[in-house]
Amino acid sequence: MFIQIEPLSNVPIYEQVTRQIIEGIARGDMGPGDTLPSVRSLAADLGVNMHTVNKSYHELEAKGIITIRAKSGAIIRSTEERALTPEQLQQIEKNLKPVVAEGMVLGATVDQIEHMMKKVFADLQLPAEGV
Amino acid sequence: MFIQIEPLSNVPIYEQVTRQIIEGIARGDMGPGDTLPSVRSLAADLGVNMHTVNKSYHELEAKGIITIRAKSGAIIRSTEERALTPEQLQQIEKNLKPVVAEGMVLGATVDQIEHMMKKVFADLQLPAEGV
DNA sequence: TATTTGTTATATAATAAGTATAACAAATAT
DNA sequence: ATATTTGTTATACTTATTATATAACAAATA
């Protein structure tokens, strides 16, 4: 699997796992209907505890990105199933705000920030385009 | 002062303080050369401990946003002093990535995300325009 | 000179993060 | 049918983080 844990990071391991799975889906490495590896096997792969991965999966479920079927596995939901509610949109905006504010205070221009946005989009989408 | 603490938030208090000071600067509520309130007075205002605010100030200093003069106070640095190094730009991009990725996976379009960006920009800049 | 300032130190408590084992019952594979 | 794998649940433990509470120090300021 594509996940790489940075043990010295200030970002918790379960959060690193969550983010990298999300980025993997955005990048098209895996898509709707695909099953995630079992918490035990992924934990063994990453060299971390089962519960750490389990926490990440439940975070993904809370975000509406996957469905966990008890005693079976975790499946990536389809785009139709993931509604994109107004609450979710608002949450994204709330997450965006401190990042943008920090960038501006550090002296980044609107153009610079929008340029970075495009880089992030490209980084997440281009590999899929290459198929 | 404009800072509002949400005690039930999963975001640590010192981090809430840091973010809201940054947003205050971005919004133009306070600018370069201005001094932040003393850690003791702000802590009293917010009803939190001195060290919590102190931690926030040192985080702001580490980000290059303020300068702490020992036994004197904390001053907001000028835009010229805040260099905006390539490392900082890269950090902003790194912060942006998981937020954008999550938005996309949840089904937000590029246009929707860019529209939210503009809302955030407006929210941070318009009040200053009104002066 | 008295007050305020950031700094430093120590102590304590609560919560979060992470690991370690173990057992259960349902789902799946053989 | 049996064995394995699965997510779930429970308990226990360690460590780090967050936050508070006091106190004292020395420099800056009023």
From TrEMBL, chains A, B:
<dbReference type="InterPro" id="IPR036390">
    <property type="entry name" value="WH_DNA-bd_sf"/>
</dbReference>
<keyword id="KW-0238">DNA-binding</keyword>
<feature type="domain" description="HTH gntR-type">
    <location>
        <begin position="11"/>
        <end position="79"/>
    </location>
</feature>
<dbReference type="Pfam" id="PF00392">
    <property type="entry name" value="GntR"/>
</dbReference>
<dbReference type="GO" id="GO:0003677">
    <property type="term" value="F:DNA binding"/>
</dbReference>
<dbReference type="GO" id="GO:0003700">
    <property type="term" value="F:DNA-binding transcription factor activity"/>
</dbReference>
<keyword id="KW-0805">Transcription regulation</keyword>
<dbReference type="InterPro" id="IPR036388">
    <property type="entry name" value="WH-like_DNA-bd_sf"/>
</dbReference>
<protein>
    <submittedName>
        <fullName>GntR family transcriptional regulator</fullName>
    </submittedName>
</protein>
<keyword id="KW-0804">Transcription</keyword>
<dbReference type="InterPro" id="IPR000524">
    <property type="entry name" value="Tscrpt_reg_HTH_GntR"/>
</dbReference>
